[in-house]
Amino acid sequence: LTSTAEHLFNLKFAAKELNRNSKKCDKEEKAEKAKIKKAIQKGNMEVARIHAENAIRQKNQAINFLRMSARVDAVAARVQTAVTMGKVTKSMAGVVKSMDATLKSMNLEKISALMDKFEHQFETLDVQTQQMEDTMSNTTTLTTPQNQVDMLLQEMADEAGLDLNMELPQGQTGSVGTSVASAEQDELSQRLARLRDQV
């Protein structure tokens, strides 16, 4: 296989780039956390929530990049072994040829699909890689769980030594999420009671 060394280099380089992207997301997360504190200090909860959502998103992205970096690294090691043992098949050579543009794209879905193709070239697709793939597909969603956002807001307020006033009803205790949820539940119960009275 011609220029296999170059392709191997590109795989290893992509793993490093993915790792670098993960670190960038870490920095962004820290910056967003600082903005949360400032917004809470100014009493602007809406802005604080937006920065909290951004921080959680950056954190999840950092994890995704890190996972994919490890996965690409593992595939590079397998290709290296295949080359050393002279077991580079024609189909593997085909996958290698198509990979350069995909790796440069830094698109996690495309790289994940490419790694799938690579992994299918190996006789033993180990359980660990499959578990990693399952975890990847579960964490690439862009949704931001509100309980994580509320917890992060509380954490930043605590660090800043501030009371977190989320405009809760008087006498409500517990975490922000449960307070809001129970308030909604109470309202729902009252509506149902009124409907029953009308019947």
TrEMBL record:
Region of interest: Disordered: 167-199
Gene Ontology biological process terms in this record: vacuolar transport
In this chain, composition skew of type Polar residues spans: 170-182
Name of one Pfam family that matches? Snf7
The UniProt family comment states: Belongs to the SNF7 family.
- UniProt-recorded name of the protein: CHM1B protein
- The protein's organism comes out as Horornis vulcanius
Gene transcribed to yield this protein:
Chmp1b
